[in-house]
Give the backbone structure.
Amino acid sequence: MGLKIQTIKDINIYLAEELKDLYPASEISAFASIIKTKFGYTKLQMAAYPGTIVQPSFAKEIIAISRDLRKGKPIQYILGETTFYNCTIKVNSATLIPRPETEELVDLIIKENKGFSGSLIDIGTGSGAIAIALALNLPGSSVTGSDISEKALATAEENNKINHTEVTFIRDDIFISVPGKYGQYDILVSNPPYVRESEKMLMSENVLGFEPHTALFVPDDDPLRYYSAILRFAENILPKGGRLYFEINEALGSETASLVASFGFSGVTVIRDLNGKNRFIKALK
């Protein structure tokens, strides 16, 4: 194309030209802002000094990033990190990219538990995003995150250091977990795999091609298998009055709520996300 990246302004022009046939203009603009922030440019520099010279090494990296974006690779995986509830979270092929809806789940828990000073566990923690955000925003709490994936847990530990939190991360398989090795927790939160195999066709290629399928999909004939396992676990580690929070499949709100109630939980409530979809459940032991 002959385009060169010499100034901050050129970053926008280059990305707009390279990606115009693949992404909407609003998304390309968002990519440009994320990339510029990653390379240390402030919002003031971007707005007031668009003629600021870009180092040649940065320009080469931006060209490489553009090539990956053309392949459909998510910007978060390309840069190796994302922002989640004001936390910097490293992500990679072993972890899901945290979603805005999950930030809503974290926000719900924080708002309902101000001043909380008990213990909290995040089942299927992945990158540790939920556990770390809760640890930072509920500073009196003791937070644990568990996951079956060693690679995901290594990433979670890295995020623990980056965000200066003291979350305890442990490897565990919820399907064969022995609750006796745990203490009691006052709050249990989980965003487990919940997308049915038949719903793959509704998902974008950059999710299907790059994010870990084991952290996303469940069989159509047993879509609530993770919730059942977590609820069996919760029977032993949540005391009476303990709180449960789930992120759920929008199409299975009533089914998931019925399952939670069948384990003796009270006050089972399905909550809509900002897009009006059934996305969360909360309940009391």
Notes: The longest helix spans residues 56-70. The two ends are 62 Å apart (CA to CA).
